[in-house]
DNA sequence: GTCCACGCGTATAACGTTCTACGAGATCGT
DNA sequence: ACGATCTCGTAGAACGTTATACGCGTGGAC
């Protein structure tokens, strides 16, 4: 609307109608008495700047509280922004992962923006496309359920790291806890307590990609059962790893003549839904039935719940993922695959079966 | 966490493509045999396109699976992207709000990206700046704790709607539940049960802006106490509305000679932390002390917790916020302020005091 | 027949960066 | 003394859109 005067006495008492009029690199350059190219060099820490010039430009930037326009940057160079895809933001696990991710990118001066996907492959794909539209410099995908081919396709466009879905990839990195091992930890623990009738809640999905967490954990459960000579007792209930999934699993179990003596719920959220129903029906935990979750979420630690679970080391997962992504942005192309060994956390919901 | 193993799968067959080579509007135009200006018109649904041309261009877009470059768009026009600031992503309340926000923007063909702030004003400011750097078309701020002047400043740059922090604003809209009323609902409920000794957990913060939720809820508590002639019994413990805040509030209370007969925890998360300690110490709830939360989060509904709480209508809050933001983007400048009446949800953690 | 409005397209200048050239001095080896 | 080299700085062309300003037929009104 009106022209900008540098000798503006009072910092605008009026409403600034020129939507989004922030200082630009050209403003900085003008104020510092150099070319925009020079200002850009200072901004990027590029070669060819004298200490004197750097000083002046930085001063001008501070004085104008200059902030680089990410859109403009995205047109030619980098945006210094990382995109994170989270499907189930409810799940505290991802929040814990983020607490590992955030400081690494903050340290490297990358901004982080999160895209929340609805629980469907289409939504995941759409959100990833959106992040690419915004020219993010790299992507962290939290337990994507999309086909691996799609992940490869994205990875051919920009650096990608997948968290909590193992198996490695040709063009991207993966960071995950070993779900088969974690699942076996639970079975071993329950068998060690004397259980033989152990049910497992899995996810009802047509996708049988072996790297999907629920496939891996179910495989770990089945292998462990076989290893203990309990092949006949393998008992998988496929609903879903949500609170609702736990509720319907409980309903199915309660329809039977007898409950199993232990349930490996696959995820804490599912265990919570399951526990809610059991408690309501007066089923005693761990008296009548032992219950184990997976993820070691903060809620499960609460005294009245005290859920036995498996810790995936979420923050470590997040930190390693961020580090790998930075490496990839730095130019590495050989894929890497980090696998963390999960640990069992024994609490009050598991105990020996009633004699 | 235990140590991890790192394996490197077979090296990449090849580096797939020149990073980020997607179809551009020019490609579309060439394929359709028109100018880029024409293609742009079709893309934006602007005036001056014949049905035939529209047809051909749309066909070309589909064939090339064209996606507009948000960075380029951001340089001149809009990015069709909304930014959401969430401070405490742990808190399920915001997830519920998002479930109201998302469909509205999806319908209007806006993408939504989330910035997660650490719990500090500096972090909030930095994340908002980041979103402006990316030339978002509008911002939804979830319970920002930054000074109102800062919000006004941002609102002078782009459309802003504030959720769950009331009071209205000069240059932005607000959508919130009435915290004073909600807080009074709890006090009335407890007094109705016969309680007279009712403590309240608030937030330890130097900021006394009356629109901050914790100020409003504490005000509501105090007013209600006065209204019931319990002015002398006003008892505010300022720690924080987090699980940890609940834990330290519990510690402070247990140091005393006698516990209050009821506690208005201010937030479900704080109530959970509080409950954990009480349960551990063998304090019976609601026998020895009644506890009420605020937010009506899914965890509190779980049978063994069964937390009395206040429902803010999170999804309605989210939907209205999104609608208001779209209006603002559409050109409205008069501020609007939506206030929702919260409702009490009575559950198992509140009961009459022991005679 | 002229005039003008209208419908439909195109040409082109931004937008704010990055980055490749390139030039002007200063420094240096011989 | 004289190129060769290095250091520090500038010019200017992208990048992919949007939006303004035109141009050019058509056809209706007079």
Write the layout of secondary structure elements.
Two copies of one chain form a homodimer.
Chain A: H1 25-32, H2 36-44, H3 51-63, H4 70-76, E1 81-86, H5 92-107, E2 111-116, H6 121-133, E3 138-142, H7 148-155, E4 160-163, E5 173-177, H8 179-192, E6 198-203, H9 213-227, E7 236-239, H10 243-254, E8 262-264, H11 268-280, E9 290-292, H12 298-301, E10 309-311, H13 314-329, E11 337-340, E12 343-345
Parallel strand pairs in A: 1-2, 1-3, 3-4, 4-5, 5-11, 6-7, 6-8, 8-9
Antiparallel strand pairs in A: 10-12
The structure holds a DNA duplex (30 and 30 nucleotides).
Query: Structural class, from helix and strand content of chain A?
Result: alpha/beta
Spans of at least 5 consecutive residues with low confidence of chain A: 1-20
**Major sheet details of chain A:** 6 strands, parallel
> Reading side by side through the largest sheet of chain A, how are the strands ordered?
2-1-3-4-5-11
Largest interface: A-B, 71 and 69 residues
Characterize the quaternary organization of these chains.
Answer: homodimer
β-strand number of chain A = 12
For the record, the CATH architecture of the largest domain in chain A stands as 3-Layer(aba) Sandwich
Number of domains of chain A: 3
Give the helix level of chain A as a range of percent. 40-55%
Number of helices of chain A: 13
- Kindly provide the radius of gyration of chain A, computed on alpha-carbon positions and rounded to a whole number of angstroms: 26 Å
- Considering the protein shown, what is the CATH homologous superfamily of the largest domain in chain A? Response regulator
How much of the sequence lies in strands of chain A comes to: 5-15%
Global mean pLDDT of chain A? 91
Give the SSE order of chain A as H and E letters: HHHHEHEHEHEEHEHEHEHEHEHEE
Shape of chain A: elongated
Please give the CATH class of the largest domain in chain A. Alpha Beta
Ends distance of chain A: 83 Å
In CATH, the topology of the largest domain in chain A is named Rossmann fold
